[in-house]
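@channel sequence for tomorrow's demo:
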Amino acid sequence: VSTQSTWGILKTQMEPLESPDKTKKSIAPEDHLLWKTNDIKAQKNGSHRTIYWVKKKVKEEDGTIKGEKWRQSHKYIGEWKDNSKAGYGIQLYPNGDKYEGTWEGNMRNGNGTYWSSLKGKLRREYTGEWRNDKKEGKGAFFYKNGDRYDGFWFNDLPQGEGRMIYLNGDIYEGQWHQGKRNGYGALTKRNGDHYEGQWVNDKREGQGSYYYREKAKMFVGEWVNDTPKAGVYTQVEDEELLAKIPKKKYFTDPYFQPDLPILYLANPSGVLEDAMERVKKARASYRAQHIPIEAMFTENELIDLEKAFHEASQGNKTVDDLCLKSLLEGMEIYTSVQDMRKLVKTCLKTEEEVKDINFETFVRVFALLLEENMNKLSVEEPAKMATPVKPEVDTHFVKKTLPQAKK
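C-alpha cells (generated this afternoon):
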C-alpha cells in the first residue's frame, strides 16, 4: 500500500478527539513532529517502484467477506510530481487495460500506448499523442474488427488528415471531422475501383469522380448520399485494360448492324448543367448542416467572419435574429427575417424558434445566403441566358484520378 495510504491511517489515529464539553485536547510537541515526518514521507515526488490502490471486497450473500477484506484495484509504476503522476509511467487498470507513456497532472499527456485487455491478453489499441486523457495529435488506432487508422486526432476522434486501412483491403485517405469522413478524400477499393472527391457525414456527397476498374469507365459529377446523381459517364481510353476485358459472345452467327439514323441530344451541356444545379439546390440544406465550416471557407475568411460576428455581438457568444439580419446587411446580403429564421432552423435541424445564434450557425447561414445570391446573379446574367455554358465539372478529377487508378 502506498505511503500516503499508511499516513491516512496514522493521521486518523492522531486527530484530536472532542471531549463531552466540546473542547479539544491539546497536541503535544512530539505529535507535531510525527505529523510533519509522516507528511514528508507521504509526498510522492520522483520515481517510485509501485503504488497500489485497493478496494474493499463486496460482501457475500450471508454478509461475510471471505479471505482478505481488501482487493487490488489498480497500480502505477513511474514518476511523480507533487503527488500527481508526471513523467514516464505505467498504469494498470482494474479491467486489465494498460497504459505506458508520459503523464502530466495525473492524466495521460504526451506520447504513449494504450493496451486493451481481451480475454486475458493485451491488445494494442492506440499509439500516439495524448492531451488530458484524450487522444489528440497524431496517432495510430487499431480497431477490434481489424481496421487501422493513422492520422490526426482531436477530442478522442479522428480529425483532420488521416488514412483508414480497412480489413477488406479498401483504403481511404483524406479529411476527417468528428470521427467521420468529411471534406476531400480518396477511396481506393480492393477490386481497383477508385473514388476521389467530396465527402459529407461519412458518405460521398458533392462533386467527385469514380473510376470503374472492371469496365474501364469513369463517372464525374454530383453525388448524393453515396449515389451518383448527375454528371458525365465516359469510357476510359486504356487499350491495355480494354484488351483484358473478356467479350461475351451472345450469338454464334455474324451480326451486321443496319444503317440507323444518328440521334443527338439537344443542348447536352445545358441539360447536364441544369441537372447538376437541381442536385446542388436540393442538397444545399443537408450540406450546410454537416459540412465543417473549415471546409466552407479559408482560414483568413473565417477570421474575418469571426471578427465581424464579435463586433456585432459586442463580445457575447450569441446574437438574436435581428442582430444577425443587421450583420448580414452590413455584408450586402439582404433577406427577410422570416426567410432568415427558416435558414437558421435548417442549419440547426430544429422546428423550434431559435433566439440565440452562435458563430457556427451564423457561418452556415451566411454560406447558404451567399450561394443563393450567386445563383440569382447567374440566372440574371444575360450572356448566360443566351449562350450554352459548359457544365462546371472539375476536369482535374479525370487527370488526377486515372493514373492512380491504373496503378
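heads up for whoever presents: Confidence is low (pLDDT under 50) at residues 1-25, 382-407.
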